[in-house]
Design goal:
The chain is α/β, with parallel strands linked by helices. It is built from 7 helices and 6 strands, in the order βαββαβαβαβααα. InterPro entries: vWFA_dom_sf.
Length: about 210
């Protein structure tokens, strides 16, 4: 009997000051997101990277069943590009050092932010677009969750597909993260990595639903 596939989920989470308004919802949303992954037939490990003007790895390559309790402490500005670039290059280096048999079958990067880039110093948008394009060519999946912003414009400039981008209301953070978990589970299970129209309608900001 073959072993189940392995999957590494990397969550890049905004903890800048503007996240204070949705702090509790984000904590609950992360738990809901991970709970959605628990039903997956794959063997999952999870890495959580949070960022403001600094980047911190909260936990790394932890089995899904052993993920520790998490508390968000919003502060400071938004080094979104640096957080993404650091995460991608860190994971690329980690995987390159592993034997072929120990490498994950699937890598999924989930980026969640409610604000615009305003503090990166190490990476430019052009560099991030190149990195994401290279990793997508290798089979990595990138999911962008943008609260109360034009998430499609932001993710598009980075080279992330519209199918895996969700524009959502900050007041619907928990449900939106749960929805992202459902979509990722669907994709990993042999389906399509695509948010459905119904999923988008349930999570979109009111300003969009009124159009």
């Amino acid at each position: 009997m073959s072993n189940p596939p392995t999957r590494h989920i990397l969550v890049v989470l905004d903890r800048s000051g503007s996240m204070e308004n949705v702090r509790t919802d984000t904590e609950g949303g992360l738990r809901a997101f991970l709970a959605e992954q628990a039903a997956s037939p794959s063997t999952d490990v999870v890495t959580l990277v949070q960022f403001d003007c600094e980047i911190e790895t909260v936990f790394s390559v932890v089995p899904l069943a052993n993920v520790p309790e998490f508390r968000l402490a919003p502060r400071s500005s938004t080094a979104l590009l640096d957080a993404i670039g650091t995460t991608i290059n860190g994971e690329s280096a980690r995987v390159a050092a592993l034997a072929e048999a120990d490498r994950p079958d699937e890598t999924v990067v989930v980026i969640l932010t409610d604000g615009a880039e305003n503090a990166s110093r190490e990476y430019t948008l052009t560099q991030i677009e190149k990195l994401i394009g290279e990793r997508r060519d290798e089979g990595w999946v990138f999911v962008f969750l943008g609260a109360d912003q034009d998430a499609f414009a932001v993710s598009g400039r980075m080279g992330i597909d519209r199918d895996t981008t969700l524009s959502y209301s900050g007041r619907k953070t928990t449900g939106s993260m749960r929805t992202a978990g459902t979509m990722i589970s669907r994709g990993s299970g042999g389906g399509s990595y695509t948010f459905t129209d119904d999923e988008r309608a349930q999570t979109m900001p009111e300003s969009e639903s009124d159009r």
